[in-house]
Amino acid sequence: MNRLFLLLTLIFIPHCQAFASDQPEPVWRSLDPQNSVLMQLPHGDVVIELAPTFSPNHVNQMKELIRLGVYDNQPFYRVIDGFVAQGGPQDESTHKKATETLTLEGEWSTDSTFTFTPIQENDMFAPVTGFIKGFALGHDPANKTAWLLHCPGVIAMARGNDPDSGTSHFYITIGQATRYLDRLMSIFGRVVYGMEHVHAIQRTQVIEGDTPVEPDEHIRIVSMRMMSDIPEDERIHLEIEDTETAAYQQFLTERRHRTAPFFFKPPPPVLDICQVPVKTRIAND
Amino acid sequence: MNRLFLLLTLIFIPHCQAFASDQPEPVWRSLDPQNSVLMQLPHGDVVIELAPTFSPNHVNQMKELIRLGVYDNQPFYRVIDGFVAQGGPQDESTHKKATETLTLEGEWSTDSTFTFTPIQENDMFAPVTGFIKGFALGHDPANKTAWLLHCPGVIAMARGNDPDSGTSHFYITIGQATRYLDRLMSIFGRVVYGMEHVHAIQRTQVIEGDTPVEPDEHIRIVSMRMMSDIPEDERIHLEIEDTETAAYQQFLTERRHRTAPFFFKPPPPVLDICQVPVKTRIAND
């Protein structure tokens, strides 16, 4: 083995070590085709898991619009690096199919039965953060409320100043978590596959003085389909790491208290929930 | 004006409103060609501002390697969505030009003259955060130390387990801030232009069960040049928002205490430094 090869195997490996063999195997759950969306982009496939438990009305409206074909061949017309990729129907005749405005589903009340996998206390934006089935949430025990978080890769409904004005235009977060939008918007799902293709969507906003991007350069959605409406053999079959398991707890503990030799001094024993991975894999069926 | 057009102008505009006309104009500084790098990728140009004030030895070595052409036609061979894009010379004969290992420049000592633009106290990872000339830093007043932060778009040297083992391989952060790496790595610059092209670099790591990405699919750097070595009329002339001004302070205050009608209830009055923009524009010369 020559020196360079040795160097390449040693350089900067903590990301891999987080899943080293002394850890228990993740526990997986199947992604429900009834609650997942295949979004085909010109440059790759994206799969979104919907969140009917948290935002049932937004999920229902999205399912209806998807089945009407409202998003097919429609552009991502507002794409700002480090912020959001926003898309929606530009054709008013199509858009009229989606005139029902939605009441905000930005947070919900919790009761004594509320349980989740806790991640961190006092992360600036929430008294407590945690996961439920891979969805990142904030929780305020004093006010008995919880809400989904604007971590990268969530999908939420755009709206006007009226909190209850969302209809069909959506955004996917593509930068550092825009947590100041938490509780103010209706998050209704998250990208579980193909996030790299969302990151590669043509930006529409340029810096001052740079060449503008013309509308005909905007990336258009090839199609959006409910996974359950796609023939079985054309689906992407995915499994998601189950965040409600002892294996995931152990993963969290080791991530919080890193002991790999690479960490010659320990980082603060805290976890940014938006930087904690929940893995996806292709189902082996 | 039809209803749809009105809707499109109203939907989700707070990002724009942050720079509305009632705010003072930003103050700009010119990017120093002696301390900036043009990295040409097959799909677009990226400009990196180096940080000689904070990591002088890493900056010097990078300048030397860039001028030797060490990075030209070399791949981003370790690209993990939501984490880093890592590149460096694969050809050992070239790499030998860069065998000098560098002592970690992960943090530095501060004295009573240390000043910066404060952003936030107690953000989990640092007692205080702030900016110096657009570079995000953490500060520990008790221990009199400061360090650059792993916000998205910083460039840092890869290394082995030995903290002083970095040579020439570097990574650019592409996901949610990997703040657990703060102080453990040598950050020596940040992307100030073309970050969308970094986000679009071909990922090299796929999820379990997915089709592997072959090495010949890895994106190669076309060239890396010191901006000052490029003929004047071929340079990208940039200006960076000056973070040490009253105008920037006012921008921060309004971002912390959002009053736009869109925010029907106020977000917590805190700022995640990695989500606070420092603008770049094309110089008008």
UniProtKB/TrEMBL annotation, chains A, B:
InterPro entries: Cyclophilin-like_dom_sf (IPR029000), Cyclophilin-type_PPIase_dom (IPR002130), Cyclophilin_A-like (IPR044666). Its EC number is 5.2.1.8. It comes from the Bacteria. Residues 1-20 form the signal peptide. Keywords: Isomerase, Rotamase, Signal. The keyword Signal applies. GO terms for molecular function: peptidyl-prolyl cis-trans isomerase activity. The keyword Secreted does not apply. Residues 42-226 form the PPIase cyclophilin-type domain. It is an enzyme of class 5 (isomerase). PANTHER family: PEPTIDYL-PROLYL CIS-TRANS ISOMERASE-RELATED, PEPTIDYLPROLYL ISOMERASE DOMAIN AND WD REPEAT-CONTAINING PROTEIN 1. This is peptidylprolyl isomerase. The lineage of its organism: Bacteria, Pseudomonadati, Pseudomonadota, Gammaproteobacteria, Alteromonadales.
